[in-house]
């Protein structure tokens, strides 16, 4: 029986468990015995693998996080680390590897592939920043969870006549901020991709006040040049009043841990099954994801290091509709 | 100032309010004064219109249903009904109409367009059954709400060792059933598109029992040839035991009324803004929706009466993974 | 080391897992080794017991249902059944038993106690119908889950101008209906404790229409003399129009399977710990619950067969406020 | 017709809208015309009052925050402020006042009562810190919302093998921290009422690690002597490793803005109706709340400045069960 290992790597994302389940069960239907690697590449290098049968992945699809555990592993970037990983697979007679994770994790997968390992990557990160793909496993749920929190902040903001600066995740990109911002009807959105000064933010808040709104929400990506602390500090020093009382809120890791919604469960399930199909049919060294609504696979080597740009017309749209 | 009317029609869908908001506010930015038609085409024929300003559509995006009200209107199918509708618009100097709704409602929009009315349709129905479009406003939230209920049924099914027959909406199509089924890991899915006998359902339940599972979920679209009542009645008469105790649950209209999630708010916002853009640029008689991830407009006349087929490979996938 | 068995019985209720966890862990701190009985009294009679350590009950508190499984067991009502149960405990050297369940299950516990078994009951049923106690484990979450559904029905009811007859659980009592009804602002509430004719229901709906409301919600306990089917059928035959279109919805078992909220987790935790304390201190044959905000224990024999009456002033209150 | 004014004051709490609705509608049934005061005592002093009829309070019960707005008003503590407030009521012929809020707001109500104003207070604060009452309007929902977030943090903590320091609201008391901590199975709870050193916290985390747990949660009240920042800074400087990676999360104002659950809607409804009953029957200068499960009224003057102590046995219980 052919052997296959699956691991999750990098930041956890809602839907990873659904992907693991799909890999294991689609694997069974195509004659693979699957092993789960615990704690990402770190566990792979250390040989921390357990066999996974159909029952082991029952009742996990609806749960956030990853039952396999995950790490951000630096050592796999070294040739030594890669050799350790390959050795562990070889020693167990495991021919194939499925890597569920974001850009950094897929760079690792590309490196292993470059060393001759049969590997397929599954696009999964809440940041949705992998170029060439519509959306990654976990991103939809993360935005939905953040949105639920911003809806709640709006309630208390309206009761007190306040403006909230809300920090959402996104160290390098504004995907979460942009989508949460539009879907919550935020009065202003600050993303790393567009330089935004505290003066602009203050002007928008004052304009909202002047327009007669009872409160305001400004959604700020954590990786913006001026983050919520910097903005609050600048706005606090301003001589011209904002109109509203100012508060800030950092949503933090709560955004990661939600139970996956339908979109992420379905995407993860389809990608997991597709990964096994590619392995079964001998297509390896590819990254599997969704593009223009279709499941596609592109060479891992091509996707490494390419960040997905933000859709600029959505920022304009947000602005137009925050009247 | 140019005048524009907007109405919601047919079954209510989560996200309709976000679409109304987008139409009103994008309208303002392009120099339109918008009127809201109450109670769909029925209200249009009766002249039940109210002006909608920016503040009137504040705080509505996060709420399910439609603030304008909606009906399933038979009278608009007649020439007389159409003339009444057109007369009301003419009398008020309203040049353009935006119709938010599903297939039946867009047939009405096509009829008005055929009478020379400038009209743009927005694809919105929880059934996601309009050919040519990826997904319609409301469908994602409806599936998410149904999924949440099925997750809860699974909990009690597992505690008692039961099989649940769960009816979800879908009189003519299996979209909701299929997606809820895959995302909930249902042991079997029954859709109108595929004839399924009670004998097959019983066989699947017995196979699940034989596989050692502690419980089972069968998701059934309301429009399936054998609905949950018929299935339960047949299974109850069977001589061979199922293994599990049998219960049934009809999720019902709860599926309609959820607060829209990010996906529906964002889609509705983009479609609403696109509809106004098309009107402003003189492209009318079109239906606006999302296809392959892009916002597109296609002639209303072409979309009338075309049902979207179910993705057959998803049914196979569901089967493979319910091991 | 003293030995203790714990079982869940009757309908599953959110919070049962928190009670199991508390019994196991409070047990450890007082020197008990705990065994979990699978599938309620049925499993007890069959000797289906597993040892439960601290790690076995980690990560279960936030999940609905019961990890031990549950049944409605008729056989325990017989002397033979009781002897079988006692024998299984004796054979394993298990001195004490904790029974988590509602009225019927506690009658079983009283019977075992009458046979000389050391037993403590924990009040847990979504029906909250055990006389002498404020609220039972599971009732708060069940009402919250039903309430969420009724909130959603109200949204679609308002969009279409409809009246919904909503059936909630409660075969013998109106606790869930009453509380869901008040908390959802239902226009009328039908409970088994108060005979209500279809004529009255119709009159209330017409009065609501006359008052200018856009829609109406009637919450009906499943055990009411006229259930939703009977009511719908009578109302449908009425010559005088209701004003609103009529729809019905049966919330069903979804009400059972919610993830327990804070109130049920806390109550279950406190009751589980109290049960162990009573056993450790030699007080057995008691039923543990909350009364006037305090954890109390009363003789099992006294609580058997006593149904808790509905608070009548709450029905009046519901009426007053549905203006 | 007798006139009655109602205001919300201090921090907003889920359920305040249900209380407003109950006051208005119970008022109608007892012959009162109700006026809503906007923005708390600030609005009262400025004469910002609007008449509220039955339809004005429809559809608000399920929404968080307060439709009337609220402020933390310092000026009412002065005699001048109180006279301004009384004058506004007198000028409008409004005899009675209902104040919905926490301890500080009820001190204001007591002051007005001392000036001869007919006033009834309703206990509402998420902090549940008013001595003599079981629980206040808003506290249950706030804990439930915080709990949901901690459940999510646990998911990501478990995936990465981390310890999270989670800050919950509670500047002066540990009610939220204690209840969230027990209900989430937190490994340690830090409250203002019990001095806790960083060394103790570190020891507990290390003990959790030693016990073989995969992650840990420490819930910290914002008013604890060492808050999450101080703790994180101390723990970060420690030479002995914690075992787990450390992260912190401040839940912030999200805790305030949830949609009220059944418990808060029901409590608010009962208290609102009781307040009107007391006014109608001439009992004023009282604070209405729930004690030992019953609705009670106690003299406002007696409740001023008395903080409710934390239940110390619950802290012990939390400790026992975090094995």
UniProtKB/TrEMBL annotation, chains A, B, C, D:
Domain spans labelled Phosphofructokinase: 3-278
Keyword flag Aminoacyl-tRNA synthetase: no
Binding site for substrate: 125-127, 162, 169-171, 222, 247, 253-256
Principal subcellular localization: cytoplasm
Enzyme class (EC, first level): transferase
Pathway assignment: Carbohydrate degradation; glycolysis; D-glyceraldehyde 3-phosphate and glycerone phosphate from D-glucose: step 3/4
Listed EC numbers: 2.7.1.11
Cofactor(s) the protein needs: Mg(2+)
GO MF annotations, alphabetized: 6-phosphofructokinase activity
Regulation of activity: Allosterically activated by ADP and other diphosphonucleosides, and allosterically inhibited by phosphoenolpyruvate.
Residues given in the record as ATP binding sites: 11, 72-73
Binding site for ADP: 21-25, 154, 185-187, 211, 213-215
InterPro entries reported for this sequence: ATP_PFK (IPR022953), ATP_PFK_prok-type (IPR012003), PFKA_ATP_prok (IPR012828), Phosphofructokinase_CS (IPR015912), Phosphofructokinase_dom (IPR000023), PKF_sf (IPR035966)
Superkingdom assignment: Bacteria
Residues annotated as catalytic: 127
Cellular localization per UniProt: Cytoplasm
PROSITE patterns on file: PHOSPHOFRUCTOKINASE
Subunit description: Homotetramer.
Purpose of the protein: Catalyzes the phosphorylation of D-fructose 6-phosphate to fructose 1,6-bisphosphate by ATP, the first committing step of glycolysis.
Assigned protein family: Belongs to the phosphofructokinase type A (PFKA) family. ATP-dependent PFK group I subfamily. Prokaryotic clade 'B1' sub-subfamily.
Entry-linked NCBIfam families: PRK03202.1
UniProt name for this protein: ATP-dependent 6-phosphofructokinase
Gene: pfkA
């Amino acid at each position: 029986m052919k052997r296959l290992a699956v691991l999750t790597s990098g930041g956890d994302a809602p839907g990873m468990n659904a992907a693991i389940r799909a890999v294991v069960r689609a694997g069974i239907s195509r004659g693979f015995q699957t092993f789960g690697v615990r704690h990402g590449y770190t566990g792979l290098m250390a040989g921390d693998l357990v066999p996974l049968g159909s029952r082991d992945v029952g009742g996990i699809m609806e749960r956030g996080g990853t039952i396999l555990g995950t790490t951000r592993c630096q050592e796999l970037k070294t040739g030594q680390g890669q050799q350790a990983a390959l050795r562990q697979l070889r020693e167990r007679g495991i021919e194939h590897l499925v890597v569920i994770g974001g850009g950094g994790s897929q760079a690792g997968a590309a490196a292993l592939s470059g060393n001759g390992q049969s590997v397929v990557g599954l696009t999964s990160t809440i940041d949705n920043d992998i170029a060439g793909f519509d959306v990654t496993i976990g991103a939809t749920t993360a935005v939905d969870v953040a949105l639920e929190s911003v809806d709640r902040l709006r309630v208390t903001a309206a009761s007190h006549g306040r403006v909230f600066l809300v920090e959402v995740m996104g160290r390098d990109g504004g995907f979460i901020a942009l989508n949460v911002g539009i879907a919550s009807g935020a009065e202003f959105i600050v993303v790393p991709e567009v330089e935004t000064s505290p003066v602009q933010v203050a002007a928008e808040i004052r304009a909202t006040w002047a327009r007669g709104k009872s409160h305001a929400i400004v959604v700020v990506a954590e990786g913006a040049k001026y983050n919520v602390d910097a903005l609050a500090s600048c706005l606090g020093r301003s001589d011209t009043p904002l109109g509203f009382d100012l508060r800030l809120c950092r949503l933090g890791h709560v955004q990661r841990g939600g139970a996956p919604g339908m979109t992420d469960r379905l995407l993860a399930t389809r990608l997991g099954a597709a990964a096994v199909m590619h392995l079964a049919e001998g297509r390896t060294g590819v990254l599997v994801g969704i593009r223009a609504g279709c499941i596609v696979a592109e060479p891992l080597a091509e996707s490494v290091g390419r960040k997905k740009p933000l859709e600029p017309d959505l920022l304009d749209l947000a602005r137009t509709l925050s009247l």
